[in-house]
Write a structure and sequence with these properties.
10 helices, transmembrane helix, Heat Shock Protein 90, 5 strands, two-component regulatory system, 5-stranded mixed β-sheet, alpha+beta, kinase activity, disordered C terminus, kinase
């Protein structure tokens, strides 16, 4: 169902509306001036002439007040419109040639009044135009004098109503687009927040949480050996202190969103992995010809290595572990192997306590760089974790 004209919000500041209003105002004054000139040229000076000149000036002055009163159907605007129409009706009765000033008045009435009142005004104005045309014909019968004014009024009203409804639909569409854009922006902000939370959770798990876990294990071991083997206990405490120092550096870099602490020294990924392997008593080797890696790739591979070695330390009960960084033609591969207890990857679920958050976080890191992470393991026979990152530029994939 088409919305009534009165329900369509009018925007006086719309450029098209201002342009149409200026055209109608200019047309009114042209028609009013032409009607006065026509009357003075075709009639000798008579008793009604001063009244017609005075009413013409009054009507022009009244019409100039219209833009000051706005376009809304306020009481003073309606009173102004009634006064303008009344003066025009008197002019038409005295001089029928002023009848065609009705067309701009159609527009003014349709902009100001509710639909039914506006249509009633158009009907009244049209009737006076017909009356004026009949008067100008001096009693001669011409069907066009009866049909033409209503036809012009109908066309003018239909065009105006159609334009207003089109404008209302466009405004509604613009409002829908703005609302959709706001909702999209809110969704993007929520997604960005969730992505940042996931990133921070992975960073904390792979660094701070693993470091705190190591400190706890070392301090527990120091407590057990404090009386029987003080030297070993003090060594455990010193190791826990060094881990706490690295965790502090990592925490500070989280605040500034910088690279992992092990990469901050400028030695690159190989040196960082070598230092990590030394701290975790693992073997490290490099295969292939080294090539420069983007910072994000270096950071991701280091985090994956940290998470994998933490899992080995906490869950695998392994006697040895090895890190291997391999440079291939189109990708770089990090392998982390251990000879520990192993597990069944097919039965592994992220919510399980064993290797709970580590593997999903490692997989997400690899996928975000267009890579893959695979795990090969058998209960009692150790585990091999392999992360492959393409060297060619790729579109960043989602988790």
């Amino acid at each position: 169902m088409t919305r009534p004209l009165a329900e369509a919000p009018r925007t006086p500041h719309d450029p098209d509306a201002r342009w149409l209003a200026r055209v109608m105002h200019l047309a009114f004054f042209l028609l009013l001036g032409a009607s006065l000139v026509r009357f003075l040229l075709r009639h000798d000076w008579e008793d009604r002439s001063p009244w017609i000149i005075a009413l013409t000036g009054a009507l022009a002055s009244l019409y100039l007040l219209g833009p000051v009163l706005g376009t809304r159907a306020a009481p003073r605007r309606i009173a102004w419109l009634c006064t303008v129409v009344t003066v025009w009706v008197v002019l038409v009765v005295l001089a029928p040639s002023f009848a065609w000033c009705a067309v701009p008045l159609f527009y003014t009435g349709l902009r100001t009044l509710p639909p039914r009142a506006a249509l009633g005004l158009v009907t009244v104005l049209t009737a006076f135009v017909v009356f004026a045309q009949v008067q100008l014909s001096h009693g001669g019968w011409d069907p066009n004098l009866i049909v033409a004014p209503p036809a012009v009024a109908a066309i003018a009203t239909a065009v105006f109503v159609h334009a207003e409804r089109q404008a209302a639909r466009q405004r509604a569409l613009i409002e829908d687009l703005l609302r959709t854009r706001r909702e999209l922006a809110a969704t993007e902000r929520r997604e960005g927040t969730l992505a940042e939370r996931q990133r921070l959770s992975m960073e904390i798990h792979d660094t701070l949480a693993q470091g705190l876990s190591s400190q706890q294990m070392l301090l527990q071991a120091a407590d057990r050996t404090w009386d029987s083997d003080p030297a070993t206990a003090r060594r455990h405490v010193r190791t826990a202190e060094s881990i706490a120092e690295r965790n502090l550096a990592e925490a500070r870099r989280f605040v500034h969103d910088l690279a992992p602490a092990d990469l901050a020294g400028g030695g690159g990924l190989e040196e960082a992995l070598r230092g990590l392997a030394t701290r975790e008593s693992a073997v490290f080797r490099v295969d292939g010809t080294a090539v420069p890696l983007p910072d994000r790739v270096q950071s991701a591979l280091l985090r994956i290595a940290q998470g994998a070695l933490a899992n080995i330390r906490e869950h695998a009960a392994a006697r040895s572990a090895a890190l291997t960084l391999t440079y291939l033609d189109d990708q770089v591969v990090l392998d982390v192997a251990d000879d520990g207890s192993g597990f069944d990857p097919a039965a592994h679920r992220p919510q399980d306590g064993v290797r709970g958050h580590g593997l999903p976080a490692m997989r997400v890191r690899a996928q975000q760089l267009g890579g893959t992470l695979t795990v090969e393991s058998t209960p009692g026979e150790g585990t091999v974790l392999s992360a492959s990152i393409p060297l060619a530029p790729t579109t960043e994939a989602g988790p």
